Amino acid sequence: MNLINLKEKLLIFLAQSGAYTKSLNMSTSTIAQHLGTSQQSASRILIQLEQNGYIEKIIVGKTTLIRLTNKGLDELKNLYIVLKSIFEKPVEIILEGRVFSGLGEGFYYISLPQYFEQIKEKVGFTPYPGTLNIQLLSKDSIENRMLLEKIADIPIDGFSNGQRTYGGAKCIRALFNGEQEAALIFVERTHYGRDVVEVIAPVYLRGKYNLRDGDKVFVKVTLKTSTLNNNILTAEAK
Amino acid sequence: MNLINLKEKLLIFLAQSGAYTKSLNMSTSTIAQHLGTSQQSASRILIQLEQNGYIEKIIVGKTTLIRLTNKGLDELKNLYIVLKSIFEKPVEIILEGRVFSGLGEGFYYISLPQYFEQIKEKVGFTPYPGTLNIQLLSKDSIENRMLLEKIADIPIDGFSNGQRTYGGAKCIRALFNGEQEAALIFVERTHYGRDVVEVIAPVYLRGKYNLRDGDKVFVKVTLKTSTLNNNILTAEAK
DNA sequence: ATTACTATTTCCCGAGTAA
DNA sequence: TTTACTCGGGAAATAGTAA
C-alpha cells in the first residue's frame, strides 16, 4: 500500500536534491528509479506538476533542467509545518481508573527514611506517607502505564538495612485530577498487575478529594516530545 | 490536483487529534468531512489502513474507537524526518559567472575611510581596495542574486562629506571559488544590472587566482534555514 | 540515449443501498 | 443513526512504441 503519492514523492525527491536553489538535469528514468516507478509515470507526473505550477522545466539546448517553484516548495513546507506541530508539541498522557484500597503497605514504605528522603529530594515534594492505588479502566490507560513505566525518569534507589533488602522504584511527576501536584511511583517488586498504578503526593489525596473506593480519578503526565520520540517511536515499536 | 493521499491525510488527521496516546471515537462521516471526501471513502480507507497495520479499531460495546499504531506513527515520523532534513539544513547558494572589468571605481569607493572602516568592522576582514565584478551566467544565478540582495545582513551606511553624499550598501559573507573568505556587496545606487554581482575580499582576487576577463568563477553563500524560510518562502512567494 | 504519446490494465472514488 | 458492501465511471499506472 502506498501511503505517499508519486507526485508528493517527486516533490520531496527534488527538494532533497536541492532543486530549489539550482536547476537540476535529471532524466525521467533516473527519477523513476528513485521513486520506484516507471519512466512513463515519472514523465507524466513531471508534466502534471509543471501544469499545476509546482515545478519549472527550463530547456537549455538539448537538455531539460528542472527546479521547484516557490509554490512547490511551499506545498512541502506546509506539510512540514503540520507534521512539526504534531511531533514537537508536548504530549499529555492520561491514566484514568478507580481508587481501591491496597494492603496499607504504602504507608510503611514511604515512611522509611531511606525512601522518604529520596522522594523529598528527587521528586521535589514532601510525600504524604502512603500511596493511592488506582485500578486502570481502559486499554489505553494500561498501555500508557507501560509506556510511562519505561519513561519514568526519577530513580529511587533500593537499600539494605542488614536484615533485609528493600527494592528500588521509579517516579515520574504528574498532576492528580489534572491539578494536584503528584507523582506516579513504579516499584520494582510490586505485587500489583500492570493495570494498577500508585500515586504519591504532598497531600492526603483521599482527604483532599473525599475519595472512597471505586471513585473515578485520573492522572496526567506531560511529556516533552524528545522523550516521546525516543520511547514511543523506537523502544516501543512493534 | 491532489498532492496528498487520502490515506496519508487520514493518518495525519488522526495524529493531529492525538490518536496515538488515546483511542478516539470518530464516525466515518466526521472523518470524511475533515478530509474533504465521502463517508464511503473514509470507511474504505480506515479498513485498508487497519489491514495494513497503520491503525487499530477497538470495539467497545456499540462504539468503535480508533487509534494509530506505532507503525502508523512511525510512518508519519519518517516523513517528518525527511522534511526536517530538507528544511532545517543550511542551504548553499551558488552564483557563477565570468569576471569582467568595471570602471575601476571599486578601488575609489573601498578606499574611502568611511566605507573601509565599516567593512573592516562589520564584515570582519580588511578589504583589498577594489571589487571583483562578476557577470552572472545562468537564470539560477540571477534569481539567487536577487534573493541574496534581499537577505544580505550587513548594512554599510552611506554618508555625506558636505560636498556630496555617498550611498549605502549591503554585504553578505561568502566563499569565493568555494574557499576564499569574501563578501558580496550590493551597493544602493549601482549602475550595473541584476545580472552582475560585486565581490570584496581581504586579498587581491585577480592576483591570487590569476584571473583575466572572461574567466569563470563562483561564489558560495551558506544560509541558515531560518533565513531561507523567511525569505524564499514568504517574501519571495510568487 | 532521451521524452511522451496511445492503449490496456489496475486502482480509486463515491452513489446507492443493505445491515 | 452507524458501517461497509456493490458497482459504474474515471483516474492512475505501465507496456509498447514513436519521435
Describe the structure.
The structure is a homodimer of 238-residue chains. Chain A has 238 residues and is an alpha+beta fold. Chain A has helices at 6-16, 28-35, 39-51, 70-87, 105-111, 113-123, 139-151, 205-208, 225-235; strands at 24-25, 55-60, 63-68, 91-100, 132-136, 154-156, 159-160, 165-166, 169-176, 180-187, 196-200, 216-223. Chain A has a 6-stranded antiparallel β-barrel. Chain A has a 3-stranded antiparallel β-sheet with strand order 1-3-2. In chain A, helix 2 (28-35) packs across helix 3. Chain A starts with 5 loop residues before the first helix and ends with a helix. Mean pLDDT of chain A is 89; it is low at 231-238. Chains A and B meet through helix 1, helix 4, strand 4, helix 7 and helix 9 of A and helix 1, helix 4, strand 4, helix 7 and helix 9 of B. The structure holds a DNA duplex (19 and 19 nucleotides).
